[in-house]
Amino acid sequence: MKKLLLSVFAAGAMLSSQAQHIDYEEYDLDNGLHVILHQDKTAPVVITSVMYHVGAKDEQPDRTGFAHFFEHLLFEGTKNIERGEWFKIVTANGGMNNANTSDDRTYYYEVFPSNNLQLGLWMESERMLHPIINQVGVDTQNEVVKEEKRLRVDNQPYGNMLKALKEQMFKNHPYRWTTIGEMEHLDAATLDEFMDFYKKFYVPNNAVLVVAGDFDTAQAKTWINDYFSEIPRGADIQRTIAKEDPITKPIEATWEDPNVQIPMIISAFRTPSMKTRDARVLDLISAVLSDGKSSRLYKKMVDQDKTALQVGAFNYSQEHYGQYIIYGLPMGDNTKEDMLNAYDAEIKKLQTELISEREYQKLQNQFENRFVSSNASVEGIAHTLATNYLLYGDTSLTNKEIDIYRSITREEIREVAQKYLNPNQRVIIEYTGAK
Known about the structure:
This is Insulinase family protein. The chain has about 425 residues and is of the alpha+beta class. The protein has helices at about 1-20, 65-75, 85-90, 115-130, 135-155, 160-170, 185-190, 190-200, 215-230, 275-290, 295-305, 335-350, 355-375, 380-390, 395-405, 410-420, and strands spanning about 25-30, 35-40, 45-50, 95-100, 105-115, 205-215, 250-255, 265-270, 310-315, 320-330, 425-430. The chain has two domains: about 25-230, 2-Layer Sandwich (Cytochrome Bc1 Complex, Chain A, domain 1); about 250-430, Cytochrome Bc1 Complex, Chain A, domain 1 (2-Layer Sandwich). It is about 45% helix and about 20% strand. The strands form two sheets. Strands 1-2-6-3-5-4 form a six-stranded mixed β-sheet, with helices on both faces. A five-stranded mixed β-sheet has the order 7-11-8-10-9, with helices on both faces. A hairpin with a 5-residue loop joins β1 and β2. The longest helix is centred in the N-terminal third of the chain and has 20 residues, at about 135-155.
């Protein structure tokens, strides 16, 4: 019976994997714009999205926040879309749109009924070719960004957690500042500086266009050519990766936050690029330590020992470097040292003992479920295709990623924990209330 059940499970997993195979077509326009098409006629919707290879790491140290600022500014209006009309056009045609920015890229997208693909393509071509960048728009969005920072960062408990960590983790690389940046940098910037940033990065050869959903391929290609092929290619962007010296002894710092009542103890390790296999192993380690109430850190520190009110760990992977972050809120009289010792004890187990076969199977199930969930909608698929092309340089990862996770062994989990998660390689932040 046991063998029969295992066979049924294996067959189900294989069918699930086959059902999740994502077909796509990709090609380049002469101006360097990369195009990816994914047809899915199961629902009458279509997504047009553009991901630009520009994020916070492409800014200057005294002009941070530009990429996030442009996430807002490029909704202001274009030569053919009057100021304030962008969102009205989208909603009037049954659509929705949004954008987001990271340290590595900026992503814009629209979701429309499938009969409005042409409108979505026209609007994104307008954003790329004809945006109106003037002082009125800059001043307006400056206030919008300031309010966002107040709401989501400055007045949010632990809202500056990443800022506190980045400043210690990176000394050379532009990952040392946050995506939202510093408001005084935006205040000091001139209109010419904003224009120069736009002309450098928001060009077809620094972007990928993804169309996903219910559309006719031949018609889509015609419209893409009509709206995007005449956009001039930009100058090739030369990027250099600032190197960080290895961390060889603990770096300790404090951060005061008036919104905090209970201190947070953070232990973080610099890790390799998201493109490496080790980064994916660290994803699995994160799940072992911190994915749900049955995870090791939660069971030990919250359930059993009552060391922490809350504890978690996550692998923060990025294009050039990553960070593996463990955080927790101490319970009662437990100290920073108590928290760090508890973190270290669980890491030590990973470094010296193989996880059990049962834990390993649980991990496989978790990541299979994540893979299915992330591709459960055409919006998710569009984002995955754009990310794999632009940041990983390999669109085919869309279908191969789950097999990479499946191939990671228990021995690799132990080896990667030994390689990166050592006490002498970490940054320790005591994030406390203002004194």
